[in-house]
Amino acid sequence: MAAVIIDPLFEKEQLTRLMLEIGEEPLDEEGRNLVKVLVENDRLPVLPEILTLFDELKAESQRVLKVHVRSAFELDPGQQQHIADALKARLGRDILISSEHAPDLIGGIHIRAGDMVIDGSVRGQLQQLANELGI
Question: What is the value of pTM for the model shown?
Fold first, then answer.
């Protein structure tokens, strides 16, 4: 799609029609107008950034925080729920967890919740010790 979007030989009407047809679900009038304005002003390449910002604003208004957890071992659903409950108590928001198996952490977990990072991994503790010792 990126090649089609930046292709100057592709007419704006065709591009607008194409973008409106390939959506996963039908757009309402406002959504169609947004696509038309973006195509008209050659701003369609910023659509992914608009989506990211929209998702962030929506999560903020719904008091939901997306959290990414990296763990040295696979987390079972019970462990994920325990982490979500602890973060909800601390942050006062509903928590959506995505997790990733990261053997390079050696042990423990690394949590990223927005701008906040909680590094409870063995690797992180070793790096902190090395920094304190000046190694």
Answer: 0.66
Neighbours of 42 (CB within 10 A): 13
**Where do the domains of the chain lie, and which CATH numbers do they carry?**
2-58 (no CATH), 63-133 (3.40.30)
Q: 3-class SS at 96? A: strand
Q: Cβ(71)–Cβ(107) under 8 Å? A: no
- Band (pLDDT 50/70/90 cuts) for residue 21 is confident
Distances (CA, A) of 71 to 79, 90, 116: 11, 20, 17
Q: Give me the sign of the Cα torsion angle 10, 14, 19, 22.
A: negative
- Ordered DSSP codes for 60-71: HHTTEEEEEEEE
